[in-house]
Design brief:
The complex is a heterodimer. Chain A is α+β, with helices and mostly antiparallel strands. Among the domains of chain A are: 135 residues, MutS, DNA mismatch repair protein, domain I (3-Layer(aba) Sandwich); 107 residues, DNA polymerase, Y-family, little finger domain (Dna Ligase, domain 1, 2-Layer Sandwich); 82 residues, no CATH class. Chain A has 14 helices and 20 strands. In chain A, the strands form 5 sheets. In chain A, strands 15-20-19-18-17-16 form a 6-stranded antiparallel beta sheet, with no helix packed on it. In chain A, strands 5-6-1-7-8 form a 5-stranded mixed beta sheet. The N and C termini of chain B lie close together (6 Å). The chains are: A alpha+beta, B alpha/beta. Strand 13 of chain A pairs antiparallel with strand 3 of chain B.
């Protein structure tokens, strides 16, 4: 099927966006600070009529047109607006791509008949955009290059095979070439596209960069040109507006249940699972309240999600009543279909639910699992990782006996290389009954740990007459005794 | 008449128990090792976390869900949630302050609802009256206890100082690493 492409150009996108939001009845321009001065970024036809043009400094422009009204430009908002227009354009065809900062390409191959043909399609587009207060220039051809040229220089439709005939008379700028290249070609007397086309290709290729012939070939359809479609914007959100405000927890939960049902259907269709959800309530007095739920595992099981929302919903202040509920999956993950085996799955699910419940009270990152770390330094031999993002460790490496609790070293009095016979620790007088050791641990000098500045450590396991079993160490390089752990 | 050890330990399921004393940590570690399924271990964030290397002989550190809270209130609330869900085999909570009868009773009820055992590590002299049993554990030196052949075993004196459904007693026990079980060395109490 012959490819058909519409190029849609908004010559005054920024100015018209600003005027749509806040119309004025005067020459109007947007300014942007560029190259050390305020310059005109975009302007309305009336301002242009007084002799202004883009890139002129504001001071200069005011001298031409004293009544000029200006506002600062917001290029980011313009881009957002263009994105909106691109979404709007999907009403004509599913394949819409951006073209620079102020244009769109629509691949309408096979979808023009839905609007009654190509001519009615362009008319419809033009009428709707005019109603929205946007001036647009349209070009339709079998290649994006030709459509682009038509939109900029000679609005209209080029039938298949007419490309060269339609753009032949247009200036070189219609080929999307850099200004410098155009000027250079014009100096040689090449002013139009057909003149460029008639030159021997070899000389053009030798004399100019390949861009010139590439753009020409793209416009004429000799080499293909891609239109990158917009990324599909997946959002999973549902909402419900109520005719009468509600306030009871049961009613709100019933509303939430319906929304969750719909959301889970959406997630199911896309094979996704929600990882975090946000339930927003709008009250009659326009106040908003929201309940966030972060899940320990991605899921799309309505009943379980509902049960987890219960705690948050009961804390919501309904005020004079709630008249809108919105549920959004703020974070989703891939979640394929899985086989249901009753025993295993139930146990895993209930553990994940527990992590979610605890996480909603104290923060999901505060529920952790141990993971071994390959280090001979006792306090560095493990790390804690959030349980919601990790799996349990299957087997723990077997190492030397270590105390059940480690704490930062606490100094005690003692001298010599054998554990002191009696010492005071945490306000208690202790006597040493038996001591096993020493086990020498050398510092990891590459870690640069402040706790280990005293050098080597000789560790002793000491049983005291008072019932404690402690882990003492002696630092022979810098004599001193410390307690670092208890065996319980 | 002395209470047989087997009736007191392993701890009665779906009940809240308390342990205090210097050897309480080892008691909790051993109990966690014997518990079926995952274990939730709750402690406040300012306290050093239990060392998984030290835990490994008694209990697989992989089955622990370490829960760190910012206050004792949240620790108790997390313990209650975990007990009520019934998703884990044991909930260990390190309690640093005094707890009242209400909190103790709530934990007891949650344990019964979820069918999960609770073990609170309490400071000496703390705890609540709602607990099923309370244990006081200290290490005893091998000199005090009868000599054993294996030199590396450590001995603890486990005293049952509160028991809702029986008499009090105390035992000297040691950990048999090969069999992974507690062995009574001598029945000290009567």
């Amino acid at each position: 099927m012959q490819r058909r492409v519409v190029s849609l150009w908004f010559p005054r996108l920024a100015a018209e966006r600003s005027l749509r939001a806040n119309p004025v009845d005067a020459p109007f321009a947007l300014t942007l600070f560029d190259r050390n001065s305020e310059r005109i970024h975009d302007l309305c036809p009336r301002a242009e009529g007084t002799g202004l043009n883009r890139g002129m400094t504001l001071v200069h422009a005011r001298s031409f047109c004293p009544g000029l009204l200006t506002r600062p430009a917001d290029p980011k908002a313009d881009q957002r607006f263009l994105r909106l227009l691109a979404r709007w354009a999907t009403r004509y065809c599913p394949w819409v791509g951006f073209d620079g900062r102020d244009g769109l390409f629509l691949d309408i191959t096979g979808s023009a008949h839905l609007m009654g043909g190509e001519e009615p399609l362009l008319d419809d587009m033009r009428a709707r955009l005019a109603r929205a207060g946007l001036s647009a220039r349209l070009g339709l051809a079998s290649t994006p290059g030709t459509a682009w040229a038509l939109a900029r220089f000679a609005e209209g439709i080029a039938q298949p095979g007419e490309n060269l005939a339609r753009i032949g008379r247009l200036p070189l700028a219609a080929l999307r070439l850099a200004d410098q290249t155009c000027t250079s070609l014009e100096r040689l007397g090449i002013a139009t596209v057909s003149e460029l086309y008639n030159l021997p290709r070899a000389t053009v290729a030798r004399r100019y960069d390949p861009e010139v012939l590439r753009r020409l070939d793209q416009a004429l359809g000799a080499i293909p040109e891609q239109i990158s479609p917009l990324k599909e914007d997946l959002s999973f959100a549902v909402r419900m507006t109520l005719p009468e405000p509600i306030g009871l927890v049961d009613d709100v939960m019933a509303g939430a249940e319906r929304l969750i049902g719909h959301l889970c259907e959406q997630l199911d269709a896309a094979q996704k699972g929600a990882r975090s959800l946000k339930l927003t309530f709008r009250r009659v007095d326009q106040e908003g309240q929201s309940v966030e739920l972060r899940l320990a595992r991605s899921m799309r099981d309505g009943d379980r999600i509902l049960a987890l929302f219960e705690r948050g919903v009961s804390a919501v202040d309904a005020g004079y009543g709630i008249d809108m509920i919105r549920l959004e999956a703020t974070q989703v993950e891939e979640l394929g279909p899985r086989q249901l085996t009753p025993s295993q799955t139930l146990e895993k699910d209930s553990l994940a639910d527990l992590i979610t419940q605890l996480g909603n009270r104290i923060g999901l990152e505060n529920i952790q699992r141990f993971a071994p770390v390959d280090s001979h330094i006792p306090e560095r031999s493990f790390k804690l990782v959030p349980a919601a993002y990790s799996m349990p460790v299957r087997s723990w490496p077997n190492r030397r006996p270590r105390p059940l609790r480690l704490f930062p070293p606490e100094p005690i009095t003692g001298s010599g290389s054998r554990p002191p016979g009696r010492f005071r620790w945490r306000g208690r007088a202790l006597t040493t009954l038996t001591a096993e050791g020493p086990e020498r641990i050398t510092p990891a000098w590459w870690e640069g740990d402040d706790d280990w500045t005293r050098g080597l450590r000789d560790y002793w396991r000491v049983a005291t007459g008072q019932g404690q079993r402690l882990w003492l160490f002696h630092t022979p390089q810098n004599p001193g005794w410390y307690v670092q752990g208890e065996f319980g | 008449m002395s209470l047989p050890f087997a009736t007191a330990y392993p701890l009665k399921r779906a009940r809240a128990h308390e342990v205090c004393g210097d050897g309480g940590l080892a008691f909790a570690a051993i109990t966690a090792g014997q518990a079926p399924g995952a274990v939730v271990w709750i402690s406040e964030r300012w306290r050093p976390v239990v060392n998984p290397e030290g835990l490994a002989p008694y209990c697989d550190p992989g089955k622990l869900l370490v829960t760190r809270t910012d206050s004792q209130l949240n620790a108790l609330a997390s313990a209650e949630t975990a007990l009520r869900s019934g998703a884990v085999g044991l909930v260990v909570a390190e309690i640093t302050g005094p707890i009242g009868l209400t909190e103790g009773r709530r934990l007891q009820l949650a344990a019964e609802t979820g069918g999960t055992t609770a073990l609170l590590m309490i400071p000496n002299g703390g705890g609540s009256n709602a607990a099923e049993t309370r244990w006081h554990c200290t290490g005893t030196s091998p000199q005090n206890a009868p000599r054993q052949n294996d030199h590396d075993s450590t001995h603890w004196q486990w005293s049952l100082i509160k028991n809702k459904i029986g008499t009090l007693s105390e035992w000297v026990v040691r950990w048999d690493a090969a069999a992974r079980r507690v062995i009574v060395v001598s029945e000290a109490g009567g």
